[in-house]
From TrEMBL:
It holds the Pfam family rve_2. This is Putative transposase. PANTHER family: TRANSPOSASE INSF FOR INSERTION SEQUENCE IS3B-RELATED, TRANSPOSASE INSO FOR INSERTION SEQUENCE ELEMENT IS911B-RELATED. InterPro entries: Integrase_cat-core, RNaseH-like_sf, RNaseH_sf, Transposase_IS3/IS150/IS904.
Length: 109
């Protein structure tokens, strides 16, 4: 597996305490690139609740039942999805406004 991200610029790697993050490869990468590990508090799932909720939305609304031809298509479609979500998708939790619209309304109050 490879990444185009410059790992020397990563300072912190935050995860929950899931078993998928207890492996030698991750430990070695963190050590080599001097990346600090940050773990959620034991028995306290709220540290990553916002991120987990975001992942769930992306998985169910964007990824589910889709196949991307290549990484470039995935990047392009994800960018379009994020723009749609932020500027167009209305949310009942935000008084039936899109996230950007809601934020702007709060700033001007």
């Amino acid at each position: 597996m490879s990444t185009n991200i410059n790992l020397t610029k990563v300072e912190i790697f935050h995860t929950d305490r899931g078993n998928e993050f207890k492996n030698k490869v991750i430990d070695e990468v963190l050590k080599v690139f001097e990346i600090k590990r940050s773990l959620s508090k034991k028995g306290y799932p709220y540290d990553t609740a916002v991120a987990e909720a975001g992942y769930k939305i992306i998985k169910t609304e964007f990824v589910f039942n889709r196949i991307f031809k290549n990484l470039e298509e995935l990047k392009r479609e994800l960018k379009n999805y994020v723009l749609w979500y932020n500027y167009r998708r209305i949310l009942s939790a935000l008084n039936y406004m899109a996230p950007i619209e809601y934020r702007l309304a709060k700033v001007t109050e």
